[in-house]
Structures are given as C-alpha cells and as structure tokens.
UniProtKB/TrEMBL annotation:
SUPFAM superfamilies: S-adenosyl-L-methionine-dependent methyltransferases. This is Protein-L-isoaspartate O-methyltransferase domain-containing protein 1. The keyword Transport does not apply. It is a lipid-anchor. Substrate recognition component of an ECS (Elongin BC-CUL5-SOCS-box protein) E3 ubiquitin ligase complex which mediates the ubiquitination and subsequent proteasomal degradation of target proteins. Specifically binds to the methyltransferase cofactor S-adenosylmethionine (AdoMet) via the N-terminal AdoMet binding motif, but does not display methyltransferase activity. May provide an alternate maintenance pathway for modified proteins by acting as a damage-specific E3 ubiquitin ligase adaptor protein. Transmembrane segments: none annotated. Signal peptide: none annotated. One of its GO terms (molecular function) is protein-L-isoaspartate (D-aspartate) O-methyltransferase activity. Belongs to the methyltransferase superfamily. L-isoaspartyl/D-aspartyl protein methyltransferase family.
C-alpha cells in the first residue's frame, strides 16, 4: 500500500512531498516526521527505498507506507501528556514519532508479536536517543515495547487515550479494541479495508469515521492446542518518574528554552530551503524546439537576454548555496549539548543530563 506521493531523495524531501499531497497537515506532525529519519529504520542495503511512498517488509520487520503513517499521526490528534498504545508496534518508528509529541509526562507502550522485531525496535530507539541531534530538540516519551499477541492482552489492563493497531482487524475483534480505549479517546485501525478513526464518546458509545482505503495483513491469532491457555500479555505498568528524572527534564527544558529565545533574538533560521525542487524547475526550462531529421529536439535560444538570464540564475544559485551552507553548519551545532557541557557540574551528572549520548 502506498505510492500516493513522489519518491524523495532524503527524509526532508519525502516530508515535503507528503505535505504537498496533504497527508501531513499540522506543524507538530511535520516536526515529528522531520525529526525521525525513516531511512534509519531500514536494514543496510535497503535504505535506497526508504524515501519512496511504499511499504517495506523483510522477514518479520515491516514498515507501512509513509502516507499511511501520516494519516495515522494526523487522525490520532496527539497532545502532550496523553497515553498511547501501539498494537503491532514493529520497528518502533511510529511510536518514536508519537513520543516526540506526547512528551515526557505521557505514556508510550507497544505490543509486538515477534521477539526479534522488539529487539530491533529497542536497538533503533537506543540509537535515536544516543546519536540523533533531533532528540535534543524535543521532550521525549520513551516507548516501552513488550513481546506478545495483542489479541491476548490481560483483561485487567489499564485504558489509553490513543491507540493504533498496525494490522487488519476483523469485525469480531472491533469491540475488543474499543474496550482498551478511555472515554474521549481515539482509536485508529484498519478494518474492512478502511483505515478508521473511532472516538469513544461514552461508556458504550462510539463515533466512527473512515479515513483512507488501505490493505493490511490481518492480525495473527494465537494458535494453541485444545484446552491450552493462551499466553496473556501484560502491558507495562504506568510508573511515576523519579526525582532525578524530573530534574533532568526541567533542566533540559530550561536550557532549551533559553537557546530558543537566543536564536529567535538573532533571527536564526533552522529550515533548509528545498534546493532539489528548485533544480528540477531549472531543468524543465526550455525555450524552443527544432526539427532534426524527423525528430523534435529541445534547444535553448541564443540571445543577449538569455545570457543575462543565465548570469542572474548563476548569481542567485551561488547566493542560495552559500545560505544553505550557513544553515547546515548551524544545524550541526547542538546548542543544548554545548550548554550542558559548559555547566559547572561533575562529568557524571553532565552525562546523565545528556542521556549518556555518544556525540
């Protein structure tokens, strides 16, 4: 499923295309998508396909098409402090993006059938926290993944504000999913070839809205011999953060706010211009066609005006390239990290404030 938008050359290019096609419609969803490079969740040797609007599967590892994830993120209507449950959490790509929006006082849980995929998701999460500069630009709710069949969740489990199921739900499992949702909560899941948004409006009332026609593999039902009890899935507990953890969150928040205020005062721009699309436009600029034999060949018209135009384009391109270079240098500087390292604190405390980041 996918292919609704043009292929991108990198993650920012992919997000630009999703915005243009109206799959990404809000700023907070755009920021989350730009912060997490989809290519980082691909195996080595397959990354060239990461920025196409197509699903990808290798063994048990699976990623839905970017347009699907975009619609899911928009339909969930995420806010800071909400609790989120991802049924069929896979690589953790979606859960990590959700964590950037719901923030450190939210709840972020995932259930995945395959143990090897849970291990893969934990590796990718650890890599994001330790190596991605995007991590320092957000307050993050770290996902917690458990192995198990999401159709066997313990009946005494707590309910969630937001739920997403990443596999096709049969009609007879619809109510099972709804029970996991708090009143006022939103459940997004594929059911009967439709990505559906379900809002729980009361103890036994729901409102449904079809979002997008989709094709998902169905949920896997646990096979067992007659009389054998299923393996019950116990969701992670909702715990209160420690005083140390709260201190880290508020110190980082204060430093981040100071850095943002400073950059706004200086008029610093963090957004990189869309240079690829500009180049494509220049390639399409053709003035005339001529016949050579029986073929129609495009050819530029030679004129003083054209030469002047070429010089203008060259000057503009050189100026834009200089601007782009300056912005990219600014992006490479992790201001929050520099501020923490400059604090008069023991090195062990600095490492804690930095989440023991490796760069």
């Amino acid at each position: 499923m996918g292919g609704a938008v043009s292929a991108g050359e990198d993650n920012d290019d992919l997000i630009d295309n999703l915005k243009e096609a109206q799959y990404i419609r809000t700023e907070k969803v755009e920021q989350a998508f730009r912060a997490i490079d989809r290519g980082d969740y691909y195996l080595d040797g397959y990354r060239d396909n990461a920025y196409k609007d197509l699903a990808w599967k290798h063994g048990n590892i699976h990623l839905s098409a970017p347009c699907i994830y975009s619609e899911v993120m928009e339909a969930l209507k995420l806010q800071p402090g909400l609790s989120f449950l991802n049924l069929g959490s896979g690589t953790g790509y979606l859960s990590t993006m959700v964590g950037l929006i719901i923030g450190p006082f939210g709840v972020n849980h995932g259930v995945e059938l395959h143990k090897d995929v849970v291990e893969y998701a934990r590796e990718k999460l650890d890599d994001f926290i330790k190596n991605s500069d995007s991590f320092d630009k957000f307050e993050f709710c770290e996902p917690v993944f458990v192995v198990g069949n999401c159709l066997e969740i313990s009946t005494d489990s707590h309910q969630y504000d937001r739920i997403y199921c990443g596999a096709g739900v049969q009609k007879d499992h619809e109510n099972y999913m709804k029970v996991l949702l708090k009143i006022g909560g939103i459940l997004v899941m594929p059911i009967e070839d439709q990505l559906t948004q379900i809002t729980r409006t009361g103890q036994s009332t729901w409102e449904s809205k079809n979002i997008l026609a989709v094709s998902f593999a169905p949920l896997v039902q646990q096979s067992r011999a007659d009389g054998e009890k299923p393996d019950t899935v116990h969701l992670p507990p909702v715990t209160v953060r420690s005083l140390q953890d709260l201190s880290r969150i508020y110190i980082r928040r204060t430093l981040r706010n100071l850095a943002n205020e400073d950059s706004q005062g200086k008029g610093t721009t963090q957004r990189v211009p869309q240079k690829r699309k500009r180049r494509r436009c220049r390639r399409r600029r053709i003035n005339t066609y001529v016949f050579v034999g029986n073929q129609l060949i495009p050819r530029m018209v030679e004129s003083e005006e054209e030469e002047h135009t070429e010089e203008e384009h060259k000057e503009v391109e050189e100026e834009e390239d200089r601007d782009i270079g300056d912005i990219e240098i600014l992006k490479q500087v992790n201001v929050l990290r520099d501020q923490i390292m400059a604090l008069p604190l023991p090195e062990s405390l600095k490492a804690y404030l930095l989440y023991y980041r490796e760069k």
